[in-house]
Specification:
2 copies of one chain form a homodimer.
Chain A: H1 12-30, E1 35-36, H2 38-45, H3 49-57, E2 69-70, H4 71-82, E3 88-93, H5 97-103, E4 113-120, E5 129-130, E6 133-134, E7 136-137, H6 141-148, E8 152-155, H7 159-172, E9 176-179, E10 192-195, H8 198-219, H9 221-224, H10 227-235
Parallel strand pairs in A: 3-4, 3-8, 4-7, 8-9, 9-10
Antiparallel strand pairs in A: 1-2, 5-6
Helix pairs in contact in A: 1-2, 1-4, 2-3, 6-7
The structure holds a DNA duplex.
DNA sequence: CATTGTGAAGCGTTTCACAGCC
DNA sequence: GGCTGTGAAACGCTTCACAATG
């Protein structure tokens, strides 16, 4: 039987998919859809239906057999589990290209986050406006974090400034860091860190781009038609 | 025994770590370090040493027992396997905040990619400069892609324009897409897609932030000292 | 009777532990 | 002696297949 509380730990893989289900469900709710099957949700989220059911079963059993899930209820469940009952204030360190773009990024609205401050080391930038925010000095980080009750920081500095930024964020009391700088950060165990390295993403893509022909032979035998074809294919010394 | 060619398929988990090893190794090379042990590389990359050895063994056996790996050789091996022997030209669709920031992002240099074009639907933007690039019309996408030999496209459009952008990229002959728009894209099987959804990253962080206390009880029993403590802890109805 | 919820099987990844080798 | 390379064990995630059920 499934758990009915919401205090438990979810499998990591499930946690990383819940945000996608949530986003898809929100879209459906906006379109007036009020029920959805695991199959339907799976299709929209780009995953397999059994996976959806297993994921959702970890939140407790809230579907109706023969019918499906109540979209609204599911949204509330997932929001609650992810800690999105209320918005999280977020602070950005680094007011360069990327930092400013993130500060103005509309994609956070309605998804649980609000950028409430942006700081930089450069005293020339301090005082400058970025959208509705004013760039603050990184020296006031501690005050800003406690005044605004911030627990999530985004690092958008150049690589060589990232370690310092992380250290300052941790010292200021931030407990979660989203790092865009291409460096491996070290942080105390009580601080969560996620890295988004754009070059890494592209490198993974380029690997697959380069090796795609092999994949297809393996994944879609119908494209190479027969064992014989596959052997010919290999004999060509492909790639 | 290990493979000695470089045509084989690597485990997906290995592929996603090679870029990190590569980055760390490049830094080491710059500092004049020419040998490194699996332990040393593991430390710098933030992973476990056995994992490093297994990952590298998939590239063939190129370490020296009792000594370690030759940094330079390893860099060449990984570069080659990831398809980074030469730079990849990259095109960005969407010249908004994020698109422009990505176009000016310095982090791609020396990591195998060069942004060679940026396009937008908005005719007011077309002709405007973004750094050393001029924004082109999305209608010339096909020509641009073939003239510049582009196979990787980045989608940095608003959500509602992303599906169209993807379709146009595919039609133009692009075979890999890095998507920053918060939508689930559908693409033919021969096209690789990776999604970077900033709100999703933050939501995963917020989940862990919210549930951290539980994790620590589970992961670091020494912090809660004893079974008795853990029971007390639970009895408090934490979270 | 369509659809959920879930044991159980299958797979890929991680980690261990040590033989093999320089 | 120190470090790699790798079988084998352990683990977590995915998928299957179907009993449970509104």
């Amino acid at each position: 039987m499934a758990r009915d509380d919401t205090t438990g730990q979810l499998p990591e893989a499930t946690v990383s998919r819940l945000p996608i289900y949530l986003h898809v469900l929100s879209t459906q709710a906006t379109n007036g859809i009020d029920r959805i099957s695991s199959e339907g949700l799976a299709e929209l989220a780009g995953v397999n239906a059994a996976k959806v059911r297993k994921d959702l079963s970890h939140l407790g059993s809230h579907g109706t057999r023969g019918v499906g899930y109540a979209v609204d209820h599911l949204i509330r469940q997932i929001r609650h589990e992810l800690g999105l009952d209320h918005d999280w204030p977020v602070l950005i360190v680094g007011a360069g290209n990327l930092g400013q773009a993130l500060a103005g990024y509309g994609g956070f609205d309605n998804r649980g986050f609000r950028v409430v401050a942006i700081v930089d080391v450069d005293s020339d930038k301090v005082g400058t406006r970025v959208g509705r925010l004013t760039i603050e000095s990184i020296d006031r980080l501690g005050e800003t974090v406690s005044e605004l009750g911030i627990s999530i920081g985004i690092i958008a500095t150049p690589p060589n400034a990232a370690a310092d930024a992380a250290e300052r964020l941790v010292a200021a009391g931030v407990t979660s860091i989203l790092n865009f700088a291409p460096v491996v950060l070290s942080a105390p165990r009580h601080v969560g860190v996620r890295n988004v390295d754009l070059a890494v993403e592209l490198q993974i893509l380029s690997y697959h781009d380069l090796h795609r022909i092999n994949h297809q032979a393996a994944i879609e035998p119908n494209l190479v038609a027969s064992d014989t074809d596959e052997i010919q294919f290999k004999a060509l010394g492909f790639r």
